[in-house]
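Hi support team,

I'm opening this ticket because the web form for multi-chain structure prediction keeps timing out on my end. I have pasted the exact lines I submitted so you can reproduce it. The total is 692 residues across four entries, so I didn't expect it to be a heavy job. Is there a limit I'm missing, or should I split the entries? Thanks in advance, R.K.
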Amino acid sequence: MSVTIKDIARLAGVSIATVSKVVNNKDFDISEGTRVRVQKIIDEENYRPNSLARSMITKTTKTVGLIIPDVRNPFFTDLARGAEDCAKENGYSLLFCNSDDVLEKEIEYINTLVEKQVDGIVLAGSINRNKALEEKYSVTVPIVSLDRKVYFKGIQATVEIDNVTGAHDAIEYLIQSGHKDILFLSGQEEVDISKDRLIGYKKALEENHIPFNPKCVIFGLYKSEFGYQYIMENDLPKEVTAIFCGNDLIALGVIKALKSKKIKVPKDISIMGFDDISLASINTPELTTVKQPSYEFGYIAVQRLIDIIEGITNRKDKFEIKTELIIRESTAPRRNDTKSDDDVAE
Amino acid sequence: MSVTIKDIARLAGVSIATVSKVVNNKDFDISEGTRVRVQKIIDEENYRPNSLARSMITKTTKTVGLIIPDVRNPFFTDLARGAEDCAKENGYSLLFCNSDDVLEKEIEYINTLVEKQVDGIVLAGSINRNKALEEKYSVTVPIVSLDRKVYFKGIQATVEIDNVTGAHDAIEYLIQSGHKDILFLSGQEEVDISKDRLIGYKKALEENHIPFNPKCVIFGLYKSEFGYQYIMENDLPKEVTAIFCGNDLIALGVIKALKSKKIKVPKDISIMGFDDISLASINTPELTTVKQPSYEFGYIAVQRLIDIIEGITNRKDKFEIKTELIIRESTAPRRNDTKSDDDVAE
DNA sequence: TTGTACGCGTTATCAG
DNA sequence: CTGATAACGCGTACAA
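Hello R.K., no limit was hit. The queue was backed up. Here is the completed structure from your submission:
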């Protein structure tokens, strides 16, 4: 239906080769006169080259795939935006996929993306991996994986956030504020980020000669409901004066529950999050947290991918992004006395 | 590089036509024996058809474009997820574009999408339209526009949220709760949704014989910063007992500012939002709001688009989605006395 | 400076 | 039941 290069050639009275050249700015070959004439017809006819046909020749689609568990997770929404921005700036388009953290969906998407001839894939892998299964898939396009190891065969690179240091810095800060008994309300135990953050947690304790108490680590889900329910259903040990939450959503749930239990934040207990989602600063009290530069994360991942696609390989294979401690209102120095009831005013 | 239909044909000792048939399940033509043999080779070689080549023939890419202002706006993140889910369920892929509410970017994206031969586009148009400019573009693929009129030439349909009724219901509820002086903190005046919500606001007032006071309508931005700053920088008229906010983000900002001014919500003043973003229920107090089914919005828009693409046109051209009043904690009946200071306990 | 002709990987038609 | 072959729209050596 739509107008093709052939139509333009006919209308301009030239060959398709000539049209092709002016379309692609290979017009060092073409006389000014015909160039202008052809261009005019192109504009008049509102001609747009069919990129499918072009891709068949050039073997590149200028399209990359993005697979994430769920955009609705605030961490991934920023990441997705960063990824899209970088893609656009480099002239690429982004195919958008949500895996819901299930490996089968992820593989399904990878297949589709490969069939659609994407030039590469940015993959925030789903939680449960299956090494044996994955290794059977040799993906023919470059993959940049985020935060999680994946086992597909093929060219790969990884971009990671330094969760160990992030958690370490958070705990170190709490310790410096006088806290010793710090509850760690984590997400799923199996996830790499949970493991790394636990390592950072232990490390900071150890450096400060505070014994590690396994009972102070609780695994749950990276959702506000988990934080809320845990607090509602459990009595906190007397000695706990701070809670380090696996992410901001958990922290927000915790704060909500504490409010309903009339426990003051940060007066009675300090709360830290992880992520720095946009609501961390809207909440009352504003959340002290470890900022993950999720926008940059997505941006850099796509940049790495495009570098690989375009053959710029002079970068290391593993790229690490630093977190940043954001101190706001939900944390405070530990009070010298034990929690008391003598001070209920706001 | 990768294995093609030709390779499979050679390996299986059949023609490419035969391979094509078993790939596409047109195998009513093929003997069971060869079908199995060919399938075996396909599996062994991990063959994936090149969908570019296929699309050139079939004139369909099974890909649609989604253009939204910004995924980071919670309303659009849910919408995007709904869109993707519907696309996937129908065997389509989604090309993901953020226009930042600027028309030029939007047009750029449309051009790219058309070049990539998408089968259709779901477009949440940017704020400032330019009828003359748009009408010069005849988009050759179907467009389903969301919430906002667009003027591109071509096959079109619209999916809208009934903002008039949504706002009306909200104000009606406040009035029934005894409020009469209701401040409306809206977003940008030029936007269709702002206009529609204002209509609903006026309508509810009128129905209840409450005179409309133009000073009670303030236009700003659909961001929490607007709500926060407005409250911080302005003294509310004594008589105002409720604020209807243009969206939840504004409402969250308002509540934050009120807290810092020691004004209690909902005791001293009732606050309503619009959208029902996930944080509305995490916030303290939980936000009373008008739920926009944004996930469904995206889902239905893509469904409509695919219906058009696949020639199922037996649906009306304009599709309207209803909102839902969600009553939580940030609103309360108006107290009979004027605001007093005799009651500062929690 | 411009045009011819081939090929990219597939589907669809039609002959065998 | 199976296989040649044209066609899809374009880019590019190579010929003119």
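A quick check on our side: The domain at 163-288+327-345 of chain B is CATH 3.40.50.2300 (Rossmann fold). Let us know if the file doesn't open in your viewer.
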